[in-house]
Write a structure and sequence with these properties.
By secondary structure, the protein is an alpha+beta fold. It contains seven helices and ten strands. It has a five-stranded antiparallel β-sheet with strand order 4-3-2-1-5. The protein has a three-stranded antiparallel β-sheet with strand order 7-9-8, covered by helices on one side. The longest helix has about 70 residues, at about 1-70. The protein is rod-shaped.
Length: about 280
């Protein structure tokens, strides 16, 4: 009986093995077919996506070159920013087009990017206001590098103008970083923009005779090498009281020489008065 069972098993085993092999071959064939179909579907999309990225890279170079030439007369900082903005915009468009070619839903990507941009905008609200102010300062040019300004409780020479802040150097060589929003929204005084500046010196001459004193002060001002001939210096009577007379000596000079002229002319007036024993 046992021998009969073994004989039956031996006869049916090759049939079972053959069936399993056929099923395995069918599965492998189906997998290969699907893999080939998937390859024919994905490879062209991938090649198109790569082509779009290559075209985007080429377009970025062209856009950068064209933008630089078109804005060649624009301030350097603003020109760099606009060139970068154009390049980034083209890059974003190219990446979205490549993702769309791969079958990725770009509407979802755009929505995510938009939400992220909104969140970043709210978080960086102050920074973005400084950025906007920087663009306006660079565009409107209320001051240039090298100008002396007074704004935001700061007085000094403009060392650099950036997108977010402006660097000012004070007379004692202290570097101060001023946010652009404070410069753009507040009152700004540019003391060197006009090239020349009038020095107003208030002088109390007591009861001294006015006419000869005015003539003497004007001669002192005109003799200074940094005082301009045009406009000519003037000396006006500001105030008369029973005890004294107040004059205003007003020489003109280059804006950059203002402090020097003011100090030295006052010194010369004082020395002249001391020599006569009147001060």
């Amino acid at each position: 009986m046992t021998s009969l069972r073994l004989l039956l098993i031996a006869q049916t085993l090759p049939v079972q093995l053959t069936t399993e092999k056929i099923q395995a071959l069918q599965v492998a064939q189906d997998f290969s077919t699907k893999l080939i179909d998937l390859g024919f579907k994905i490879v062209p999309q991938l090649l198109w996506a790569i082509g779009i990225l290559l075209i985007t890279r080429f377009a970025i170079g062209i856009a950068g070159s064209v933008t630089r030439k078109a804005l060649s007369r624009t301030q350097t900082t603003l020109r760099k920013f606009l060139v970068q903005a154009a390049e980034i915009a083209i890059l974003i468009v190219g990446v979205i087009a490549a993702l769309s070619q791969l079958g990725i839903q770009t509407t979802s990507v755009v929505a995510v990017v938009g939400a992220a941009g909104l969140a970043i905008g709210l978080a960086w609200q102050n920074t973005l206001s400084h950025f906007a102010a920087g663009v306006m300062l660079i565009s409107l040019r209320p001051f240039e590098v090298g100008d002396t300004i007074e704004a935001a409780e700061v007085k000094g020479v403009v060392d650099s103008i950036g997108i977010f802040s402006t660097t000012v150097l004070t007379d004692d060589r202290v570097k101060i970083i001023v946010p652009n929003n404070q410069l753009f929204n507040g009152t700004l005084k540019n003391t060197t923009a006009m090239g020349t500046r009038r020095v107003d010196i208030r002088i109390d001459i007591g009861n001294r005779a006015i006419a000869p004193t005015v003539a003497e002060f004007l001669e002192i001002a005109k003799s200074h090498p940094l005082v301009l001939d045009e406009p000519a210096p003037t000396c006006l009577v500001l105030e008369i009281t029973p005890d004294s007379t107040i004059l205003s000596l007003r020489p003109w000079c280059a804006a950059l020489a203002y402090e020097q002229v003011r100090s030295q002319v006052q010194q010369h007036v004082k020395e002249a008065m001391d020599a006569k024993g009147e001060f």
